[in-house]
Amino acid sequence: MKFLKKIRNSIWVIPIFYCSMAVALALIVVYVDMKVLPRLNFELPFFLATKVDFAKEILGSISGALLTMTTITFSTIMVMLTTYSSQFSPRY
Questions:
Q1: Longest C-alpha distance within the chain, in Å?
Q2: Alpha-carbon distance 27 to 29, whole Å?
Q3: What Rg value do the Cα atoms of the chain yield, rounded?
Q4: d(CA 70, CA 74)
Q5: 3 state SS of 43
Q6: What per-residue confidence (pLDDT) applies to 65?
Q7: DSSP for 55-87, written as a single string
Q8: Are the CB atoms for 27 and 34 separated by under 8 Å?
Q9: Closest Cα partner for 60 from 70, 72, 68, 48?
Q10: How many CB atoms lie within 10 A of CB 31?
Q11: Most confident residue range from 19-28, 32-41, 82-91
Q12: What is residue 22's predicted lDDT score, i.e. its pLDDT?
């Protein structure tokens, strides 16, 4: 009982759960893409049939946006920590 309570109160339970679910979902998607979809005979609608260059452009835009968001978040956290740490002073 103590062990379950300790695990439940741990900070790593939710991230581990989300990571394991993401890996499982990725494996399911790859399996469906490699094994199930080739057996189905269907054609994509014309508006979904794009070129490789367009896909590269979209992925580049997404990765650039994520990198920008990460940089702004990190900078904001650093400014906040610097501001709060400058308020501490040694007391004599």
A1: 80
A2: 5
A3: 23
A4: 6
A5: coil
A6: 96
A7: HHHHHHHHHHHHHHHHHHHHHHHHHHHHHHHTT
A8: no
A9: 68
A10: 10
A11: 19-28
A12: 95
Q: Which residues of 38-64 are buried (b: 16+ CB within 10 A; e: fewer)?
A: eeeeeeeeeeeeeeeeeeeeeeeeeee
- Tokens linked to 65: 């946006």
Q: Which residues contact 7 (CB under 8 A, 6 or more apart)?
A: 13
Q: What is the DSSP string of 9-29?
A: T-TTHHHHHHHHHHHHHHHHH
Does 56 score more than 70 pLDDT? yes
Q: For the full predicted model, state whether its pTM sits above 0.90.
A: no
Is residue 7 within 8 A of residue 13, CB to CB? The reply is yes
16: exposed, middle or buried (Cβ count in 10 Å: 0-12, 13-18, 19+): exposed
Alpha carbon dihedral 25, 27, 29, 32, in 10-degree steps, equals -140
